[in-house]
Design goal:
Largest sheet: 7 strands, parallel
CATH architecture of the domain at 5-185 and 226-257 and 302-316: 3-Layer(aba) Sandwich
CATH class of the domain at 5-185 and 226-257 and 302-316: Alpha Beta
Structural class: alpha/beta
Helix content: 25-40%
Shape: globular
Bound molecules: nicotinamide-adenine-dinucleotide
Distance between the termini: 36 Å
Mean pLDDT: 96
Low-confidence stretches: none
Strand order of the largest sheet: 3-2-1-4-5-6-11
Radius of gyration: 19 Å
CATH superfamily of the domain at 5-185 and 226-257 and 302-316: NAD(P)-binding Rossmann-like Domain
Length: 332
């Protein structure tokens, strides 16, 4: 397989660190850039000493640091842009920074890609669809956003939407751009603190024996996707020169998500079953509390993966029960 020089922004985060591991394993030279705002060097422990991996602490909004990164790598063939402020609590508490990093980080890395004639892969989000009424989320569906006076949750989704606008513009200007929308990735290293994401938060409540919070009764549904499947989607989206049909992937927006639609209450039950089946775990399962949750939380987030399957040959291969079991094993 051809070896590429690849910059990964957000490399020390949950998805970025697993992506770096997979790219290095395939023989690519990788430079991971991260501000360490939310990621950590521990996440990169498997690759930090690898001869084909370099880490640079830096801010994705800083074009000089991005230029340095490319210089250290000796040029760049592909940019995977994953740096963003993720974690729902931040979207409300730090809307200004969420917008700043999303929009300026994407504009600066697009400029970097253009200056170096590199292929560009954006980590967008299903939240770019906003308050989507129509499911599954399909390219061409309306992307609609509520009044920002009501809540600031869309600091994240609306700026991902603008990231996609900037990418489609760059694509029309001739840059080779691919957009990936991961759906609720989960696996080891997912953050479970109060700024974290639901699967890890539930496991953390169990480990710490603290009441587990079901927002608004837990009837919202999500499509939880195992990290290995997510990384496989990013690899295919960035490394394939064309789609399976031989047609350019430039400008394609690819939903990478499980089509197993699960309510948050069903997720909680599935996690309790996994832990209860572990006979070596002696601690009682914590009580479940129903809390208000966040304004603007979407009721459903289900992907249509037609493009990912037909163009990349991608589909999620790990069931929720298998993934939860693997995550519990890694926590134990
Ligand atoms: N995890 C998911 O389910 C999911 C779903 C949809 C989209 N995404 C997108 O995928 C990408 C990766 O998500 P993740 O779950 O790994 O999140 P993460 O928070 O674990 O990783 C993001 C990384 O970006 C870094 N970062 C933040 N601001 C930065 C800055 N100014 N300069 C440089 N680095 C900065 C953080 O320190 C962190 O390590 C993000 O763009 C996210 O929006 C993730």
């Amino acid at each position: 397989m051809e070896s590429n020089r690849i910059v990964v922004t957000g490399a020390a985060g949950f998805i970025g660190s697993s992506l770096c591991e997979a790219l290095v394993e395939q023989g690519h030279s990788v430079l991971g850039l991260d501000s360490l705002f939310r990621g950590s060097l521990d996440n990169l422990s498997a690759v930090l000493e690898h001869p084909h991996f370099q880490f640079m602490q830096g801010d994705v909004r800083d074009i000089d640091q991005l230029d340095d990164a490319v210089e250290h790598l000796g040029g760049v063939d592909i940019i995977y842009h994953l740096a963003a402020i993720n974690g729902t609590k931040w979207f409300h508490e730090a809307a200004h920074s969420v917008i700043d990093v999303n929009i300026n980080g994407t504009l600066r890395t697009l400029e970097l890609a253009m200056a170096n004639d590199a292929r560009y892969v954006l980590a967008s989000s299903p939240e770019a669809f906003g308050d989507a009424e129509i499911q599954p989320l399909t390219n061409g569906n309306p992307m609609t956003f509520s009044d920002p006076a009501e809540h600031q949750r869309h600091s994240y989704g609306a700026s991902k939407y603008l990231d996609e606008v900037a990418c489609q513009h760059a694509s029309r200007e001739g840059l080779d751009v691919r957009i990936v929308r991961p759906f609720n990735a989960y696996g080891p290293r997912l953050k479970g603190d109060e700024y974290g994401q639901v699967v890890a938060m539930f496991f953390q409540s169990i480990v710490n024996n603290q009441p587990l919070s079901l927002h608004a009764g837990g009837q919202q549904t999500r499509s939880f996707t195992w990290i290995g499947d997510i990384v496989d989607g990013f690899l295919k989206a960035g490394l394939m020169d064309t789609g399976l049909d031989g047609v350019s992937l430039n400008g394609c927006a690819l939903n990478i998500g499980s089509t197993e639609e699960v309510s948050i209450q069903e997720l909680q039950t599935a996690i309790y079953e996994v832990v209860a089946s572990d006979l070596t775990w002696k601690q009682a399962l914590p009580e479940v509390q129903v809390t208000d949750g966040y304004f603007g939380d979407s009721k459903r987030r289900l992907p249509n993966c037609y493009e990912s399957t037909s163009l990349l040959g991608w589909s999620a291969s790990t069931t929720l029960n298998d993934g939860l079991q693997r995550m519990w094993d890694s926590i134990r």
